[in-house]
């Protein structure tokens, strides 16, 4: 992966000299170019990841942070977690949320992308601008805005629902507490996360759509294909690589949602915890951090993510190859 | 090949999931006598008035240490735990710091604070400090911090509604319920705000019924939350929402600043639990309602004032400080009689000095309430019990949503037994 992309470019530009050099020995250029990036990623990401891996088998608290050697506890952290019914509850909530949110993000995002492609230039820049605002909003800001929207005093959502006729939505909305139960909390969370994530999907889909030659659509129309058929027989197969990446990234993003949930319901609502919040509350929740425990939870989350993505990627690639 | 490529992309993206932030900072330390710089950490967001007050303190401090530059850093309360963790781990701590009094024992246990027994003994003003608050700053006969200011909570109520509905100041639990019911039934406001995440007020009900969170037996903490007194208090507190229906459900899962304070200031709820410092915040929210607010003590079950949790802040010298003497000098200036008075007047918190009194008449009730204070278990594990696990708030939430009080309090008690004794 490291050498393919630059190699192609170089070959096209300076064919003769490139060929000559390749014969003489291994080409260092691409590796040198990518070295700074790899170094930064290694320091900022791989090293902490390795640390998390080590710490998950240790007891790490304040004493250890101040310099005392960390004491190895074997798999005790993992035993504690896996035997805690609370862990399974948070895991269930994490997975369910990811399934719902990823589905909705891709659905809404694709529809918005198709819409953007259909619209005229002026209208599409208006829609794209609106969509970009959602994308550009930092998660903290978005979470606070949604907490206000769904709040009890001055919350627009409750106010609107209360104004609507009772036979439509039921009554008593004025004081409805969205953050009291996990289901309603996650409803708000899903709306917030999907709102923020679908612009990226929309823009990626739009970019893909622009690259499909218009003749293909013309041919489809001549053959009498409707929009539904056109999408599944033409657009979707053409954009499959893009969808693959989008699905994988959405799964990763939605599995590790933290900021929004932390702001919306926080530490006082353990029944609405997901894995990230559980890990945070163990590791950083009080002045007595249990970093070993937190690392173990983070490791479990990472492993689950890698398995899920690897499995999904495999399935997609297999399908692509047989076709 | 294609598979490897995609897998590599996937792995790289997955790794992007973990980001880590850290900030550096210069380490400059002068001689031990008169350091070039003294780092002071204050908790909370900080305001212009507070900065002005601290500037005056610095000017006074400089008459003794002309070459020392005092640097104030405000640490917002929600970031306190992580900021101190970083300070302890990275050695980038303050010289002098304010500490929430419930965290002092954790800090002592972790060796974050300098032993200031000697300096404290030589400080004449030390004798004026509140004795109960001082015990919380000591361990094994040594002093690690000094009390600065304290705050107690009471019931804020709407004087106009009480008058209009001819409600007397409630002296027992039954009268409190009756008062809330009258307000609720008048349809002018909700009766009372009872959030699930307000341990400080809940404790007054547990204590006001003769209950305890835990007591020390030998050198072990023994949880008392499953005892009938505590269970009854939890039932009463939750029952205001569930059975009496005089408190709205909208505060389940929230604390007093996530609704109750705002709604009380705006006139949507008749009573709520908070401290003297709330007045300044509520004035900002609804300046025209100021005349409608009054305060009465949290009643105990059968009559009289319930003990209240002594919340507040203390001052300590950080153990890694290289200028401990100057740091303690700063504390003595910050907490001398003149500055203590100025601070109380600005902040609305009562000074922990016996010679400094509240002057605002609206806050007078708090002075008498403050004579009956109590501490939650003085244990390093309290931080985890209350902040990380939020054991009581989550138990109360479950009870408010229909779980059995006996069961939930029993579970909370098991947590207390484990967490309070953990080292």
From TrEMBL, chain A:
<feature type="transmembrane region" description="Helical">
    <location>
        <begin position="95"/>
        <end position="116"/>
    </location>
</feature>
<dbReference type="InterPro" id="IPR000515">
    <property type="entry name" value="MetI-like"/>
</dbReference>
<dbReference type="InterPro" id="IPR050809">
    <property type="entry name" value="UgpAE/MalFG_permease"/>
</dbReference>
<feature type="transmembrane region" description="Helical">
    <location>
        <begin position="230"/>
        <end position="253"/>
    </location>
</feature>
<feature type="transmembrane region" description="Helical">
    <location>
        <begin position="128"/>
        <end position="150"/>
    </location>
</feature>
<keyword id="KW-0472">Membrane</keyword>
<feature type="transmembrane region" description="Helical">
    <location>
        <begin position="291"/>
        <end position="313"/>
    </location>
</feature>
<keyword id="KW-0813">Transport</keyword>
<keyword id="KW-1133">Transmembrane helix</keyword>
<feature type="transmembrane region" description="Helical">
    <location>
        <begin position="28"/>
        <end position="50"/>
    </location>
</feature>
<feature type="domain" description="ABC transmembrane type-1">
    <location>
        <begin position="91"/>
        <end position="312"/>
    </location>
</feature>
<dbReference type="Pfam" id="PF00528">
    <property type="entry name" value="BPD_transp_1"/>
</dbReference>
<dbReference type="GO" id="GO:0055085">
    <property type="term" value="P:transmembrane transport"/>
</dbReference>
<protein>
    <submittedName>
        <fullName>Sugar ABC transporter permease</fullName>
    </submittedName>
</protein>
<feature type="transmembrane region" description="Helical">
    <location>
        <begin position="186"/>
        <end position="209"/>
    </location>
</feature>
<dbReference type="InterPro" id="IPR035906">
    <property type="entry name" value="MetI-like_sf"/>
</dbReference>
<dbReference type="GO" id="GO:0005886">
    <property type="term" value="C:plasma membrane"/>
</dbReference>
<feature type="compositionally biased region" description="Basic residues">
    <location>
        <begin position="11"/>
        <end position="23"/>
    </location>
</feature>
<feature type="region of interest" description="Disordered">
    <location>
        <begin position="1"/>
        <end position="23"/>
    </location>
</feature>
<comment type="similarity">
    <text>Belongs to the binding-protein-dependent transport system permease family.</text>
</comment>
<keyword id="KW-0812">Transmembrane</keyword>
<keyword id="KW-1003">Cell membrane</keyword>
From TrEMBL, chain B:
<feature type="coiled-coil region">
    <location>
        <begin position="395"/>
        <end position="422"/>
    </location>
</feature>
<feature type="signal peptide">
    <location>
        <begin position="1"/>
        <end position="21"/>
    </location>
</feature>
<dbReference type="InterPro" id="IPR006059">
    <property type="entry name" value="SBP"/>
</dbReference>
<keyword id="KW-0813">Transport</keyword>
<dbReference type="Pfam" id="PF01547">
    <property type="entry name" value="SBP_bac_1"/>
</dbReference>
<comment type="similarity">
    <text>Belongs to the bacterial solute-binding protein 1 family.</text>
</comment>
<keyword id="KW-0175">Coiled coil</keyword>
<dbReference type="GO" id="GO:0015768">
    <property type="term" value="P:maltose transport"/>
</dbReference>
<dbReference type="GO" id="GO:0042956">
    <property type="term" value="P:maltodextrin transmembrane transport"/>
</dbReference>
<dbReference type="GO" id="GO:0055052">
    <property type="term" value="C:ATP-binding cassette (ABC) transporter complex, substrate-binding subunit-containing"/>
</dbReference>
<dbReference type="GO" id="GO:1901982">
    <property type="term" value="F:maltose binding"/>
</dbReference>
<protein>
    <submittedName>
        <fullName>Extracellular solute-binding protein</fullName>
    </submittedName>
</protein>
<keyword id="KW-0732">Signal</keyword>
